[in-house]
Write a structure and sequence with these properties.
Layout: H1 2-12, H2 17-30, H3 35-43, H4 54-62, H5 67-77, H6 80-87, H7 105-114, H8 120-130, H9 133-144, H10 153-161, H11 168-174, H12 183-189, E1 211-212, E2 226-232, E3 235-243, E4 249-255, H13 266-273, E5 280-290, E6 293-294, H14 297-300, H15 311-316, E7 319-329, E8 332-333, H16 339-352, E9 358-360, H17 369-377, E10 391-398, E11 412-416, E12 420-431, E13 440-451, E14 454-463, H18 469-481, E15 483-487, E16 490-493, E17 502-507, E18 509-512, E19 520-523, E20 526-531, H19 542-546
Parallel strand pairs: 1-11, 7-9
Antiparallel strand pairs: 2-10, 3-4, 3-5, 5-6, 5-7, 7-8, 10-11, 12-13, 12-16, 12-17, 13-14, 15-16, 17-20, 18-19
Amino acid sequence: MNHFAELLDRLAFEPRRNAKLRLMEDFFHTTPDPERGYALAALTGGLSFRNAKPGLVRALIAEQTDPVLFALSYDYVGDLSETVALMWPAPAPGGAGHNAAPPRLSDVVEGLSQTAKTELPGLMARWLDALDETGRWALLKLITGSLRIGVSARLAKTAVAALGGVDPNAVEELWHGLTPPYEPLFAWLEGRAERPESLVVAPFRPPMLSHPLDEEEFSRLDPADFCAEWKWDGIRIQAVRELTADGRRVVRLYSRTGEDITASFPDLCEDLLAQEAFVGTIDGELLVLRAGRVESFNVLQQRLNRKAITPRLMQEFPAHIRAYDLLAEGGEDLRPLPFVERRRRLEALVARLAGRRVDISPLVPFASWEELAMARARPGEAGAGIDAEAVEGVMLKRRDSPYVPGRPKGLWYKWKHDPHLVDAVLMYAQRGHGRRSSYYSDYTFGLWRSGPEGDELVPVGKAYFGFTDEELKELDRFVRRETVNRFGPVREVIHTGERGLVLEVAFEGVQQSTRHKSGIAMRFPRINRIRWDKPPREADRLDTLARLLPRGERATTKAGKT
């Protein structure tokens, strides 16, 4: 456990991607099975423990410390795992936990999975007694399921792939057929066994991704080399329909990260199961389509991450796939083919489908970059029609491009709409995590609206990136200097018409939100600029956002009262 704890600690404070990779590569090379396999599962989000929750951690520390002292400490530190790790008392000399051997990571994983709920607090207490501060922190991070060390699942798989000098996509394609602690995977990568055979029917295929398009690049690109299509505001998915050896039909839906989301969309899967013309893998966008019109992302969110998928939910928010690409068909891997050939095959396939849940994303005709820029600016006039509000830009794909997993250069580009900008007032701040745990780096901001006693600020969003390290230090100093109230780990800063800080916030769109007093929330907000020069009274008003709501949502928002 200590070796794993050391890895997490170093990763949390290492900002450089390549350095993180080297740390993980060294760990996987020097750590034996099954410890490294369980570490890989933790880094990729593959571990969950039904009975071990943050509430259990709070109950354990409540038995060991003064509650007021814990509350003050948690307020200062801002992270539950770190606070408990620091405050856990050392076992008394001669006590049960004194000089006890620290648990191995495999002991922890097996113990958390197999121990009865009533016995778990005692087991966790013994582990905490046996570990040092860093070990306790790692243990608690593992239990709460929130590592937050700046390592994605993809990066961890890349580090594992380096053991055998293989492409990370080769690991990705096997992933869904493997289970922790992944011993067959490590044996293959180290040359001790053959490549594991994936027994998964309807496997996930790593997606091809695009690069943001800098308009200056137009001068180096030839429009004749590219096709353009709309970039839809949904979620990227793969729809796979395969036949087993005994002829059984299997359908699976995957997110772009490879998460199996099949169970969340039984209506869509039922339609795909019935499609005898389709055996293969479609790459596309998951949308909600009602009355022949693509709804906003806010509407799609009503279908996402639901535990109970009711008939009413499926009726009110019918799932739909807008297809972009065809990766496999009838057992043939189409990924090496040029895009235009895959597109031709996709058009023919969609034309044969009998259901109503799959259509094809139309191409955007253009002869010059100027024409494409006009289409991007006015999609409703360029063929998107009633779906224009669900378009968030255009995609450019080289006609001769194969389907290459990852983000290859020069093949695919995304050219999104320019972000919206508003001037908002900083209202609250909270400490960050990892290397930002000493700084107030998470910011809540608001806009003005008319209230019973005059103008008032109401929160509309949170942002924790978009600024430099130097700007973070300046923001942190401002928060500490101008704090007027504290609510647990949250600080309220001064925000009047004359005193406060204005942040220029960039965002992709807005949606209704019951969690915000304003009734409106921004999508993907980030700090674009710090307006030290602007008084808070000159910040924007809420009705600026209300006008951006997709049609059909404006009438019901609280912002309509402003």
